[in-house]
Amino acid sequence: MKIEGVDVRKISKEFGTPLYAYSMKTLRCSIEEIKKLSPVTRYAMKA
Predict the structure, then answer these.
(1) pTM: predicted TM-score of the whole model, two decimal places
(2) Which Gene3D superfamilies match (predicted)?
(3) Would you give the distance in Å from CA 45 to the centre of its chain?
(4) Is residue 47 part of a domain?
């Protein structure tokens, strides 16, 4: 199995398991969609 051309076994050997691997392409597309809704990014913080 590969994620964006990177073998998942290679990643798991380097970083261990369990791990989360995200697609940079998907993240960038999602960010662009969010920017269309609001150009200002805000973060929620809990005291």
Answers:
(1) 0.58
(2) Alanine racemase (3.20.20.10), Lyase, Ornithine Decarboxylase, Chain A, domain 1 (2.40.37.10)
(3) 21
(4) no
